[in-house]
Input
Amino acid sequence: MLHPAQNISTLALLCLTGFMAAGCSSTAVTGGITAGKLADCPAKDNCVSTFATRTDKKIAPLTFAGDKAAATTQLKTVLAKRSDAKIMSDQNDYLHVEFTTPIMRFVDDGEFLVTSQGIQMRSASRLGYSDFGKNRSRLEEIRTAFEPCCK
Output
């Protein structure tokens, strides 16, 4: 029979392993493009979007001067330099990106829609209720690397 402290440690290890496995195997929560827009965020606090209806989930689009092709190239360059990003889908003016956190290996979904008015963005965690601001901070890092763009 295990000591009570060993039972708690074993249970904690099993829970942690389950969360890690779930983070690695969860399915994408992207909404794609509907009526020329990215999806709004769900009720959970683990998402930001340029099309969010709640102000605490809203984020400004990326801005650029010049043409969409140059902006798309710049965005792909910024994403390629990130160790946490992997472009999963590149369809015309739409990119779906998987972002993986370094320690726990949780996967978040990022979406980018390049329009003549700017690059619309959405980033959402696949698991949990809160992301502790990670999706917003990640997109702001991308903004800093992207802007100013393009000539």
Q: What stands out?
A: The chain has three helices and seven strands. The chain has a mean pLDDT of 83. The beta strands are 33-34, 37-38, 47-49, 85-91, 94-100, 107-115, 118-125.
